[in-house]
Give the backbone structure.
Amino acid sequence: MIEAAERELLRQRALRAWDEAKRLQREAASLIAASTHEVRAAEKLHQEAVLGPARAEEARQARSTESRHSQGLAHRSSDAASPRRTVNSVLLEALVDQTIRRWDPGDEEEAEANGEGVGLVASINWPTLVHLQQLAGTRLGYVVGAHDAGAALGLAITTQPDLSIIDARLDLADGADVAAVLPFYTPQTKTLLLTDDHDIAARAQLTGTDAMPRRFSDQALLSWISNAAA
């Protein structure tokens, strides 16, 4: 189990890291916007100098039509090839911040004072989420649950759980993406990813995350919880 002092230190480090990640994201977005503006301005000058105003406008319209056509094809191709959710970074940031602001660690501290561990479970499916909480609650004193990636990451940062069980199916982003960043924000947390995709499971295991099929047996899951909480 994570000691109280160590958990608080990890919590503060994770909060600082989250603030720094948001700052870097904003700076990156600003640089991308500025670069895009400069590139477009340079293209416009080139068109006016080399092609002349009329031909430049014709070329611009042709490229615009081609770009829209290519984007449509790429979008359809991407949807067909990969069903995975893409991360909405703006919504993710908002949900994590909201989770952190509303978090009251009082219950967690009480459970920790009794010598019991803290757990995090996450799934978009409510029956699965409730079942995971019930199973984890038989071995831990305090278990929080989330059904979207923002709440899962926010709760992980604020609670620094001893273990987390993350379903690959989450709202907003893949559970696999959440599990992939947990070692950075919650380095002492032991994580189990529930997924039926063998490739995703293999990649998770390479980073130290355990994996189990989504149709797990209660006995197998309880065994993992007991070992992780030991």
User: Anything to note?
Assistant: The longest strand covers residues 118-122.
